[in-house]
Amino acid sequence: MKLVGAEIIVESLKREGVRHIFGYPGGVVLNIFDILYENKDLQLILTRHEQGAIHAADGYARATGKAGVALVTSGPGATNTVTGIATASMDSIPLVVLSGQVPTMLIGNDAFQEADIVGITRPCTKYNYLV
């Protein structure tokens, strides 16, 4: 069975025991949101803003002891999560934040909604990766 990238992400989250995802859809992550919409094992909680998603994921982690998961789009969507990421980091709250990014060939070219979110969040995360 062949899976597309969005399906791989959702299946990986399910295998890790994730049951709730907080997010705000946009641009490059719409394929992931489409898969989440079709999936009955994960509850997608849509927020009105990326800051709401990250703080809801933080609150979920604090209340349950499980990692909070947030999903946002690239550029401003990703940068809107930085305060929540830093807050959780300072309090040792487990978060997994997935953000979109422009296509690899456009990174560093001032593409629409491009932001160096890996570099921006490096000081306030344990791990961050560009996939």
How would you sum up this structure, described in words?
The chain is an alpha/beta fold. It has one domain: Thiamin diphosphate (ThDP)-binding fold, Pyr/PP domains (Rossmann fold), CATH 3.40.50.970. Helices cover about 40% and strands about 15% of the residues. The chain contains 6 helices and 4 strands. It has helices spanning about 5-15, 30-40, 50-65, 75-80, 80-90, 115-120; strands spanning about 20-25, 45, 70, 95-100. A 4-stranded parallel sheet has the order 2-1-3-4, sandwiched between helices. Strand 1, helix 2 (about 30-40) and strand 2 (about 45) form a beta-alpha-beta unit. Helix 3 packs parallel to helix 5 (about 80-90). The longest helix is centred in the middle third of the chain and has 15 residues, at about 50-65. The radius of gyration is 14 Å and the shape is globular. The two termini are about 20 Å apart. The relative contact order is 0.16.
